[in-house]
Amino acid sequence: MQNFAKYTGRLAKAAASSERILDVLNQQPDVYDLPDAIPAPIFRGAVRFDRVHFAYQSGQVLLQDINLNIQPGQQVAIVGTSGGGKSTLVSLLLRLYDPTAGRIMIDGRDIREYTLASLRPQISVVLQDSLLFAASIRENIAYGIAGVSDAEIEDATRLANAHDFIQALPQGYDTLVGERGATLSGGQRQRIAIARAAIRQAPILILDEPTTGLDQGNEKAVIDALQQLSENRTTFLITHDLYLATRADMILYLENGQVVEQGTHLELMQQNGRYAALYQVQGSLRV
After folding, report:
1. DSSP readout, 5-24?
2. For the packed helices 186-200 and 150-159, what is the interaxial angle rounded to 10 degrees?
3. 37: Cβ–Cβ under 8 A, 6 or more apart, which residues?
4. How many CB atoms lie within 10 A of CB 268?
5. What pLDDT, on a 0 to 100 scale, did the predictor assign at position 272?
6. What are φ and ψ of residue 166, in 5° steps?
7. Which of 19, 179, 214, 263 satisfies CB 3.0 to 4.6 Å to 219 for a cystine?
8. Cα separation of the two ends of the chain
9. Residues with Cβ < 8 Å from 151, sequence gap 6 or more?
10. Does the domain at residues 47-286 carry the CATH identifier 3.40.50.2300?
């Protein structure tokens, strides 16, 4: 009778949980494949934002009249005030949301014409707080990609400046990491995330504050890895560190959802506007 009472409580909890799960599964996503969507070809990496507007809710416009023309292999740094729309801009490229107005094109074609399953695998993302799973380092790097060889994993970790520290771990590539990578340092987690992005060999790369919170030694290792990773890839770098932005082919300064300044580091410094003022402030703090 005691066991029966325990199982009754467990069954009640399970029933409530199953209802919540079914609620989630029954949700209709706001972004979905159009009826005539086609598989995307292998991208060259030309990206165009054509009069793009976006609002999370009606009447609350977050991005206004964004017009960009980015060539394959170009590196674009997105800087500006917090809440200015930097992360939202690249979220539209991944089709986590669709523009309220305007269109985003890759290689001359609206991304809404492609299936999501063929669009997103061609865009690699390295976040500020990359998600690692309670699994081996090898499994974390190869996650989501079938048929990856050990040699390919090792090549990716060498590019990410991660091979040496992985080899020094007790079981090397078979070392288990804690949930969310709790057993690794911040710099080690970021280099694992960079290796994961490298092994995908995607033509478009998004880096969202990838060096935030790292000490000087780890930051240098991560920056070196990011430089190698972004080579010959169309790269979008979201950062508050203008030292990283100086290396980009194009810098966008976003404020209140608008591109208020655009150009190379030298061009923006000559304009002596918002970017130049912020760069001078950061330069004095570094000294």
Report:
1. HHHHHHHHHHHHHHHHHHHH
2. 120
3. 112, 113, 114, 115
4. 24
5. 92
6. -65, -45
7. 214
8. 73
9. none
10. no
Categorize the per-residue pLDDT at 63 as very low, low, confident or very high, splitting at 50, 70 and 90.
very high
Dist CA 193 CA 251 (whole Å)? 24
CB 244 within 8 A of CB 265: no
Residue-wise pLDDT for 85-94, tens only, equals: 899 999 999 9
Give the Cβ contact number of residue 17 at 10 Å.
10
Chain length of the chain: 287
pLDDT band at 2 (very low <50, low <70, confident <90, very high): confident
Q: DSSP 3-state assignment of 85? A: coil
- Residues whose CB is less than 8 angstroms from the CB of residue 1 and which lie 6 or more positions away in sequence, other chains included: none
Taking the C-alpha atoms of residue 286 and residue 244, their distance in angstroms, rounded to an integer, is 13
Q: Per-residue DSSP letters for 134-194? A: SSBHHHHHSTT-TT--HHHHHHHHHHTT-HHHHHTSTTGGG-B--GGGTTS-HHHHHHHHH
Residue 267's SS3 state is helix
Phi/psi at 29 (5° precision)? -65, 150
User: Which among 250, 255, 240, 247 is positioned nearest to 226, based on CA atoms?
Assistant: 247
- Of 197, 207, 232, nearest to 72 by C-alpha is 232
Q: Tell me the pLDDT tens digit for each residue of 122-180.
A: 999 888 777 888 889 999 998 878 788 889 999 999 888 889 889 998 889 999 887 77
pLDDT by residue (tens digit) across 237-279? 999 888 888 889 999 999 988 999 999 999 999 999 999 998 8
User: What pLDDT band is residue 190 in, cutting at 50, 70 and 90?
Assistant: confident
Pairing outcome for strands 250-255 and 258-263: antiparallel
Domain ranges of the chain: 47-286
pLDDT averaged over every residue in the chain: 88
Coil/strand/helix, residue 231:
coil
With contact defined as beta carbons under 8 Å apart, do 224 and 161 qualify?
yes
Token reading at 229 = 């990773």
Residue with tokens 């240098």: 220
